[in-house]
UniProtKB/TrEMBL annotation:
It is a multi-pass membrane protein. It comes from Angustibacter aerolatus. Keywords: Cell membrane, Membrane, Transmembrane, Transmembrane helix, Transport. This is Major facilitator superfamily (MFS) profile domain-containing protein. PROSITE patterns: MFS. The chain crosses the membrane at residues 12-33, 108-126. The keyword Signal does not apply. Signal peptide: none annotated. InterPro entries: MFS, MFS_dom, MFS_trans_sf, MFS_Transporters. It is found in: Cell membrane. SUPFAM superfamilies: MFS general substrate transporter.
Length: 147
């Protein structure tokens, strides 16, 4: 269903939407921290996870497609391995940073770092859109000529 909804759209625009959705998710999670040990906090936290998952469903089909469309045939495996390695490093570093911030009782800084990460991603995606060849951005030839 997601693939049908994003088909024909610029992949970078989907990534921008994903960045905004993740920022919303982190903001809702931050709000949940304002009402700890309450039903409202639990609902906000669950909502945050659902919103984050929505963003994830947008990123999952787009990021590998861009990577594979940019990779020369002979290097496609290496490009994919590097992409996977980046996600693995993030999966290791993220909890360490989160643990340090939360362990020092800095939840506001923690949420601010997450929101700054989303904003940085959006800025990178805007720049990337100007650099990506049309085919890697999911733009068909007729879309390039018509605008």
């Amino acid at each position: 269903m997601v693939l049908q909804r994003i088909e024909g759209r610029r992949r970078t625009r989907v990534l921008l939407l994903q960045s905004a959705i993740w920022a919303l998710s982190w903001a809702v999670m931050g709000l949940a921290g304002l009402v700890p040990a309450s039903i409202v906090g639990a609902v906000l936290l669950a909502t945050s996870m659902g919103v984050f998952a929505l963003g994830e469903t947008l990123m999952s089909p787009v990021q590998p497609a861009i990577l594979n469309d940019l990779a020369p045939e002979a290097l496609r495996g290496r490009y994919n391995a590097t992409g996977s390695a980046v996600f693995q490093v993030a999966a290791i570093v993220g909890p360490v940073v989160a643990g340090q911030l939360l362990g020092r009782h800095l939840p506001v800084v923690f949420v601010a770092v997450l929101l700054a990460g989303c904003a940085t991603m959006a800025l990178v995606v805007v720049r990337l859109e100007r650099l990506l060849p049309a085919h890697a951005n999911g733009v068909r030839a007729e879309q390039v000529t018509t605008g």
